[in-house]
Structures are given as C-alpha cells and as structure tokens.
Specification:
Elements: H1 2-19, E1 22-29, H2 36-44, E2 51-58, H3 62-70, E3 76-80, H4 81-89, E4 94-101, E5 105-109, E6 124-128, H5 133-144, H6 149-152, E7 154-158, H7 161-169, E8 175-179, H8 182-195, E9 203-207, H9 208-216, E10 225-230, H10 237-256, H11 258-265, H12 274-283, E11 286-290, H13 295-308
Parallel strand pairs: 1-2, 1-3, 6-7, 6-8
Antiparallel strand pairs: 3-10, 4-10, 4-11, 5-8, 5-9
Helix pairs in contact: 2-10, 5-9, 7-8, 11-12
C-alpha cells in the first residue's frame, strides 16, 4: 500500500510539473554570432522540459531590442552587456546570465598605409550603430591613441554593419570599423572585385580586442555581449540553471560543427548566407562565461562606459543583483 502511495505521489508531482509547462519561450537576438547559441537551442527545443515550444525572433537595431525588453516580448535576449545594466538601473527586472562573445570588432582598410588609429587621420571612416557599443568602443580606443574622432576623422555612420560593405565596395570610403561576420564577408567580396581589377582588397588592420588588452594591460577581449534573462523567467531558478547548462552545450556544439550549425541558423536569420554564418562562428571568440565569473572584466567595461556616457548603463554602476549566479 505504501509503495502504491509513493507511485501515485510521484505521478501527481510529474503531472503537476507538466501542467505548469509554459506554452512557449521566446528568445531574441541580432544577426551576429551572439545569437547563434539561442537559435540552436530554439531549433533543438533544448528547453522542452519547461515550454512546449521555443521561438527565436530577430531584432534589427538597438531601439527594437529596447522596445522588446520594456514590453516584455521575450524571455531571453542576446544583447550588448551594457543594455542589461541600463534596464536594471531603471528598475526593470533583468539578469545578465553570461558574456558569450568577447571579440568581434575590427578596423579594415584598403589603404596599405593604414596600420594605426593615427594613420586614419583625415580619412572617411564608416562606423555602424552611432552611440551604441561598437561606436563607443571604437571612439574610446581612438581617444586612448591621441585621436579626437569627431575632429580627426570624417565619420560616416550607418544603421547596420552590413551597410558598411556598400560604402567600402562603392568607394565612398576605404576604411571602416565593423563587427564579424560583416568584416570577413566584406573583405572576401573586396578580394573578388580586386581580382577583376576593381579596387584594392580590404584587410583587417586593427583588432580592437588586442588594442583593448594593450591599453588596459589585460586579456585581449572585451565583455561586449551576452545573454539577458528577462522579467518573465528570472524568478524560476530551475529554468535558469538548465538554461545556463544548455547554452554552454549549444555554444560548444556550434564551435565544433560550424558547417552543420550554418544549415540550421540560415533558416532563422533573414538575408544571411550560409557562408557568412560559418565565418561568424569561426571568427568570433564564442566562449560563454557565467556573468558572476566574469565580474572583473564586465565592471571594467561598464566603468569605461560610465566615464564616457553614464546614460549607457542607466546612470550608475549596477550592483551585484544584476548578475545571475547559481550558488
């Protein structure tokens, strides 16, 4: 009788847990590699114990991302790390789960004379996302090299990294800062054109991660982007713990299987080629580190943003409650 009761009790618990399963989880992210683990998890329904289905929704620009977070339209978001700090300091429930991409920013040029920030003086330089993470890092490192970007460069701002290719390949500028995979895609296209006698090929001339390490005497990586857990899930400790483990497994699988990964991801990102996705995986430092284990590097990044524009992190350095840790 006792055994029958125990079996009944277990079945009731299982049924209750199943009944509480969410209808769906929504992941959101940009077209860059920071989104790829989320896309793979959605495709594989890695969180199937917690939701009947998982959707991935692509955000096209930072304003759209902020609207999605404020409107509670997603459960997890791949985003610049400072976006989490900004919302947290505004009183919106959010947890920074991890830093998953540490290095995707480069300066490229078709001018063989360009090797340093100083060499770009007087040049037209194309830059994506004015006032956002790539632009902020670029301008900060330029200033550390004795440059006044607004004065010394003729900056051409574009809405999206993929727009950089049009500017460079059309000859409107010969130098640009951008993010992977747009950098490698643009360089590859320039080599094709150069082989036909159309212009000089582009090359990477400054790795902003290496420059960051040199300037701050630290590892050549920047706590640029990661994953945010949003209001709808941050109280579910079991879900967050499983998510963290599944995310790490997804990132590892992607790194080891870029070709197979591209076959999956290409179905979720509009206007992205399979080749670009493979390049994005291979050329991005995709190494997820739990936020709590990366505090020193995150705080360095946030402190520099706070110095240059406090509004980017919501006016002040966030306290420890921003960072998820399963301890």
């Amino acid at each position: 009788m006792k055994n029958l009761f125990m079996v009944f009790f277990i079945l009731v618990i299982f049924a209750s847990a199943h009944a509480e399963k969410r209808d769906k989880l929504v992941f959101t992210g940009p077209f860059t590699a920071v989104s790829y683990p989320l896309i793979y998890m959605a495709d594989q329904n890695s969180m199937g114990d917690f939701a009947h289905k998982t959707e991935f929704r692509y955000w096209q620009n930072p304003d759209q991302l902020r609207a999605m977070i404020a409107g509670e339209q997603a459960d997890f978001a791949a985003a610049p790390s400072y976006v989490g700090a900004m919302f947290y300091n505004k009183g919106i429930s959010v947890k920074l789960m991890n830093i998953s991409v540490w290095g995707i920013l480069h300066v490229m040029s078709s001018d063989p004379a360009v090797k340093t920030f100083q060499d770009m003086k007087g040049k037209k330089v194309a830059v994506p996302f004015r006032g956002e993470m790539p632009d902020l890092i670029f301008r900060h490192l330029a200033e550390k090299n004795g440059i006044e970007p607004e004065k010394d460069y003729d900056l051409i701002y574009v809405a999206h990294p993929m727009d950089i290719a049009q500017i460079l390949l059309s000859g409107r500028a010969d130098t640009a800062m951008s993010a992977e995979p747009a950098v490698s895609m643009t360089i590859a296209k320039s080599k094709e054109l150069a082989a036909k006698g159309k212009g000089n090929p582009l090359v990477k001339v400054i790795d902003l991660q290496q420059e960051w390490g040199r300037v701050y005497d630290t590892s050549p990586r920047i706590a640029q982007a990661g994953t945010l857990a949003l209001a709808s899930v941050i109280e579910d400790r079991q879900l967050l713990s499983v998510f963290e483990a599944e995310f790490e497994k997804a990132a590892e699988w992607l790194k080891n299987n870029p070709e197979k990964a591209a076959d999956i991801i290409v179905n979720y990102l509009p206007n992205m080629s399979r080749e670009a996705i493979v390049i994005g995986i291979r050329n991005s430092d995709m190494n997820p580190v739990p936020a709590y284990d990366a505090l020193e590097e995150i705080k360095l990044f946030f402190s520099i943003l706070h110095e240059s524009d406090p509004s980017k992190i919501g006016g002040q350095m966030p306290d420890g409650d921003l960072y998820y840790h399963d301890r």
